[in-house]
Every structure is written in structure tokens, then in C-alpha cells.
Input
Amino acid sequence: MTNKKLIFFDIDGTLMDHNKVVPESTKRAIKQLKEKGHIVAIATGRAPFMYEELREQLEIDTYVSFNGQYVVVNGEPIYKNPLDKKGIELLTHVGITNQNPLVYMDHENMKANAVEHLYIQESVDSLKLKDNILSYEPLFYEKNQLYQSLLFCTQDQEEEYIKYFKEFDFIRWHEYSVDVLPAGGSKAKGIQKVMDALGFKVKDVYAFGDGLNDLEMIQFVGHGVAMGNAHESLKDIAKYITANVDEDGIFKGLKMLNLL
Output
């Protein structure tokens, strides 16, 4: 196929509806894209182990995880951008002082430094992950390479961390939680790695998203699409806006772009 495109999809609120289910119209659309010879990929803030079933279901083996910090092409890792260890150690100590717990993640595990904390429970439960995927291991960060952390705090508390931890970016995804990333890390950076590996130019790259962690991605690609249920800030900068995720937004957006 001479007019092959590279198309990235966020997961929550984009591929998956608000009940964490992939609409049937989205499944059919993904299948049709691949039948036409396009490359379908995922770009998410989630860790790889959080969406193995989704990748199997949609037969996708190219993905950008941890908001760009861990990139896999055709099943093989091609880029890793871990968090600064000393910074995470200090963040942990400040978090403990402020009663703001953390979750530490590498590409295989998810460990918390607190148990039965309201903020952790409500935030992580909203992801509807498998039981027992999160366990208690407060010193996990000492011996493992982390690609993302979750800091559990309110928006007011977040300001202190933004002020003092310049080596990290903090992106809110829940009322009680923010993603902690290496400064300057983004889905856009991860997508660039995939483009370089597969030989795509930005004009042939598309992306669908709905959240604040999709801002750089939607601005970067040649064709950025905001879901109808997207954050208003994302809609403001998107080139296109499609319908809500639970109103066949993916299928309608792909039709709008003449990809189906």
C-alpha cells in the first residue's frame, strides 16, 4: 500500500468507553483499518501490563506506554525513558510527610507505598484493572527502573510538587491522582520514536484522544482528533472533533478522515 497511514489511539475515553468496554463499532473500524494496510497503534498513559487483553483483542503490537516513556514497535521495545531515581526518592519522602502516597511502575509491575488509602482506592478503582494487580512494596523504587509514578493528592496540593520537582512533569488524570513523568516526556515524544522506526512522516500520522495527557500528541501529529467527550482544552487545539466514545466516535472520526 503506497498511501499507508500510522494511526494512534488513546485508551480510556477513546478506544474504551466509560465502562472500560470497546464499542463494537470501534472493533470493526480497527479491523478495517488493518485490512486496508494501515498501521494501528496505541498511545496511553497506562503501563503495558494494564492493557494486554486489549492489545490481544485488537491485535495491536505497536504501542506507546507511560505517556511516551516506554515504546514498543512490532512487539519489541525500542525506547525507554526512566524516572530519575534520586528525584523519586525525594518525592517519596515529601509525599510521606504530606500524607500523599505513591504508586511506582516499571513495565511489569505496579507497587504502592501505602495500603487502604482513600485516594489510591478511588483513583485505581476507576481504571477497572484486574484484581491484585497493585500490591504493597514501599521500597520498589530503590531497585527497579521506573517509567511512571502516580502521586495521590488534590489539585491544591499538586502546586507544591510542581514548584519543587523540576525534573518531573505532573499530569492530572483523576480528582485524587496525577501521573509523574520525566520532564518533557509526552506521548508526542513516543510517537516520534515510532515514526522514526517505521519511516513515517508527520503528515501521514493520525491520533485520537480525549484527555490532558493527549495535548502534545494531538498538536504534534498531522491529523489530531479530539473525541466528543474530550477535555475542552483538547478540543480547543484539535484539528478535528468527532462524536463521543459511546456514540461511535472512533468509527465516525475515521470516516470523516476518509480512512474508512
Summary: The chain has a mean pLDDT of 95. DSSP finds ten helices and 14 strands in the chain. The longest strand covers residues 168-174. The first helix runs from residue 24 to 35.
